[in-house]
Amino acid sequence: MAVYTEVPDEALGAFLAEYDIGGLLSYKGIAEGVENTNFFLHTTGGHFILTLYEKRVAEADLPFFLGLMEHLAARGLACPQPIRTRAGTALGRLCGRPAVIVSFLDGVSVRRPGVRHCRALGSALAGLHAAGADFALRRPNALSVEAWRPLFSAAEAEADRVAPNLAERTRQDLASLEAGWPRDLPGGVIHADLFTDNVFFIGDRVSGLIDFYFACTDAFAYDLAICLNAWCFEADGSFNRTKGQAMIAAYETLRPLEPAEVAALPVLCRGAALRFMLTRLVDWLNVPPGALVKPKDPLEYDRKLAFHRRVNEAAEYGWSG
Amino acid sequence: MAVYTEVPDEALGAFLAEYDIGGLLSYKGIAEGVENTNFFLHTTGGHFILTLYEKRVAEADLPFFLGLMEHLAARGLACPQPIRTRAGTALGRLCGRPAVIVSFLDGVSVRRPGVRHCRALGSALAGLHAAGADFALRRPNALSVEAWRPLFSAAEAEADRVAPNLAERTRQDLASLEAGWPRDLPGGVIHADLFTDNVFFIGDRVSGLIDFYFACTDAFAYDLAICLNAWCFEADGSFNRTKGQAMIAAYETLRPLEPAEVAALPVLCRGAALRFMLTRLVDWLNVPPGALVKPKDPLEYDRKLAFHRRVNEAAEYGWSG
């Protein structure tokens, strides 16, 4: 949570002069966003978010992310909509960083989602997959199964410092997932990081999906597996099948899963858990001195992996056909 | 710049239920505020700032600060106005911290104030002093001349690590200021920390004064001396007399300085500079490991002190009678 780049008022004023969103009334750095610097922006034209992309986001990917948000917003999905300058460009530069202004979305992230939130999320996820169906650009998932072994190599030697036998467990997961990873599932644009902090609610209604900076082209059911991991485990580490059932059933109201997806759900859930365990493990072992961001606990996903290893079929996640 | 306390959505929802400001639409932690945690808060009733007081603000002082903001806002000063609960209290508790909701003020802090900003600030400062005249509560200035020697004691042994001969210079300043500090100047409520980041502008107009957590009862001209220090020096360390002249003249349009205040201005400016040099020096030498806030440079005020030591009369700050 940090503002990595300070933006002086003069620089912002000059930047805003390119846009048709009125005069500056206020802006405040937001203590959110691990990868980027975000400002809450109020102009005579409304409320916006100003994002400066820091070095962890590849500039070459920005046309995909911004184009996707425009595409989704145009189809009625509640997501940040990039604002274009009078010259027609969405991506600008501010204080030496790529920068963009997007529409502000109301809503609150739910820290402890209930069954009703999981149900609403299932619908929203299916809506996202449908809205992205005719998006022309493609971006491979840079954090899918091929990426896990190189990630693990960066952490293998020190993994057992984090938890006993973590290295050996991970070697077995890797071998198993690499051998059995499904390749031909229905796919398209997925969010790939739809944790609770990226979903806004007003009451029980999803009012916005944000942070599309891991979005990519991959299997739809893998996105669902990421959400089952992120939303349906309890604080004590147990999987709440009622929540899983609500999420999957709501998803299937808009897009029923195909038999191959149902069959693959356990391996997809295990793979999704391994992906987040690995990136967290690497971050955990490489906290830079003076870091402004506290790393997330890789062992939360080590515990989820223990559950997934014992799962045999989609019904254990709440799928009821 | 930091959010020291995370506020879960459930806790905030319960807190807001005590107020008559409508339903929660969104809240975001603001990466501002060295002492407190601040959230931008949007409800169906409007925009607000939610502040949680962290340990550096003494809870016993909060009735003074909140009462003062209510008093000033009631007299038309553009400052945050504490919102009262249905039960009539302004000060609540949230996540174990004293907490308050205040009105949101538009406006932008000017990093490099021009002459016109200094003029506007002079008027706003005189307006603040007038609006506070009939405020009943009193709070001694805990960072006035009596506090400087104890502050220096905490830093004296290591001061020369920060700049050569800083300790000796400071001993001489302390002796001189303690001997010559003026005692009977006109006074009342002063802001005591009116740096550029605590003043909002929309265009050339002051749209808000914020952060009253150093406000106290002291000499009005000392507040002016703090502002001359904070607003009228250039990046190269030189004092800009045109800016000083604009600030003082605008102040005097509402409240002409008395002869004793004019005579005391050089010593007040030197004292104000010493106060900020000392608190910054102590913070500089005591940065806790993992600190989220970068300490401010004490040497900026060491350089200002060098200027003040050579000043003989108020005219050198731009006073023209």
From TrEMBL, chains A, B:
GO molecular function terms noted in the UniProt entry: kinase activity
SUPFAM superfamilies: Protein kinase-like (PK-like) (SSF56112)
Keywords from the UniProt entry: Amino-acid biosynthesis, ATP-binding, Kinase, Nucleotide-binding, Threonine biosynthesis, Transferase
Pathway: Amino-acid biosynthesis; L-threonine biosynthesis; L-threonine from L-aspartate: step 4/5
Keyword Kinase: yes
Enzyme nomenclature, EC number: 2.7.1.39
Domain Aminoglycoside phosphotransferase, residue spans: 27-257
Coiled-coil zones: none
Reaction equation(s) it catalyzes: L-homoserine + ATP = O-phospho-L-homoserine + ADP + H(+)
The keyword Cell inner membrane belongs to this UniProt entry's keyword annotation: no
Family named by the database record: Belongs to the pseudomonas-type ThrB family.
Protein name as catalogued: Homoserine kinase
Source organism: Methylobacterium isbiliense
Name of the coding gene: thrB_2
